[in-house]
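Hi V.,

You were right to ask for the full record rather than a summary. Here it is.
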Amino acid sequence: MAPPLVSLADLKTYLGLTGTADDSLIASCASNASIMVERDTGRVFAVSSNVTRKYSSNGEASIVIHDRPVTDTTRPVPR
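Predicted structure:
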């Protein structure tokens, strides 16, 4: 099973929770929600590292895309 799309710590912060009594329930809900999102959208949102995809329309010319995971959403990526 893929890891949830949100960490337990981030979800608890968002919900304003501090105790640990419901951690397993919250983690299970996050995991189940992640599975449902991927199933319902037909997409996989799992983090991948340094994936290279090569696309070609004629078998000769191609474009290569280096798909790196997002690790910091607080600052813009330089171009």
